[in-house]
Amino acid sequence: MNPEELQVAAFEIILHSGTARTEVHEAFGLMREGDFEAAAAKLESANDNLLLAHHAQTKLLQDYASGVEIKIEIIMVHAQDHLMTTMTLREVALEMLELYKKVGK
């Protein structure tokens, strides 16, 4: 895999995980307002974007497993960090949504 292809994959991961992160933060705002249905929809949309990021990541892993040499650059480290922290943030948001629902009753 050439450096340009790796950068495209990294930016695809950053793009989709960044969109997901924005949606998670929007969901937090909706939770504070008591709009749990809209918050849940935002978290589902965030998951859809995380899946797109994950597909880009999986392609890299499949290429690597097939013997394609992949030289890791700092942008890929950043992309992986972005993806994993956003996935964790969404998991926390899902738990918080359930807590907000209980408190809001």
Q: What brief labels describe this structure?
A:
single chain; 105 residues; mainly alpha; Methane Monooxygenase Hydroxylase, Chain G, domain 1; 0% strand; phosphotransferase system; transferase activity; sugar transport
Describe the structure.
Its EC number is 2.7.1.-. GO terms for molecular function: metal ion binding; transferase activity. The active site is at residue 78. InterPro entries: PTS_IIA_lac/cel (IPR003188), PTS_IIA_lac/cel_sf (IPR036542). By secondary structure, this protein is an all-alpha fold. The protein has three helices and no strands. The model has no long low-confidence stretch (mean pLDDT 94).
Summary of the model, kept short:
Mg(2+) binds at residue 81. The chain is mainly alpha-helical and 105 residues long. 88% of the residues lie in helices and 0% in strands.
* Beta-strand residue fraction: under 5%
Which radius of gyration do the C-alpha atoms yield? 16 Å
Q: Name the CATH superfamily assignment.
A: Phosphotransferase system, lactose/cellobiose-type IIA subunit
Amount of helix: over 70%
Sequence stretches where pLDDT stays below 50 over 5 or more residues: none
**Approximate shape:** elongated
Query: Average pLDDT value?
Result: 94
Tell me the CATH topology: Methane Monooxygenase Hydroxylase, Chain G, domain 1
Q: In angstroms, what separates the terminal alpha carbons?
A: 53 Å
User: Count the strands?
Assistant: 0
User: Which sequence of SSEs, written as H and E, runs from N to C?
Assistant: HHH
Main beta-sheet annotation: none
Q: State the secondary-structure class.
A: mainly alpha
CATH first level: which class?
Answer: Mainly Alpha
The assigned CATH architecture is: Up-down Bundle
Count of separate structural domains: 1
